[in-house]
Amino acid sequence: TEVLNSAVALGIALQLTNILRDVGEDAQQRDRIYLPLDELAEFGLTEADILSGKVDDRWRDFMKFQIKRAREYFAIAKNASLDPSVRWAVWGAGMVYGEILDAIEKNDYDNLNRRAYVPRWRKFQLLPVALVQTLLMKP
Fold first, then answer.
1. Are 10 and 74 in contact (CB under 8 A)?
2. pTM of this prediction?
């Protein structure tokens, strides 16, 4: 069950990160919001706030909460006792997608008007690092 929990956690973390990365594009270009409305309401946000691209302290607090959640799922996925042949892929995905979360933070949580991304060259730097880390990890 540990491996299953790791796979589920990784899937949730990746999907949540994708949603956070694309939230502005989805709202502005597709008129869609893929965020839990009950959680938006907990932070005093409305659909109109998202659709208007309004970034304020409520939005920043909401994003901090969502980013923390995504990182918690990545940690669950990474901490499982996975076979080294697949561990590096999980860790690599966590590293690359973790940098998307970092980019959102660096953009002052403005993922409504700015797309957070990891340049291709950086992805190519991160994947070998993940591989080396997994090979150095003791079983």
1. yes
2. 0.87
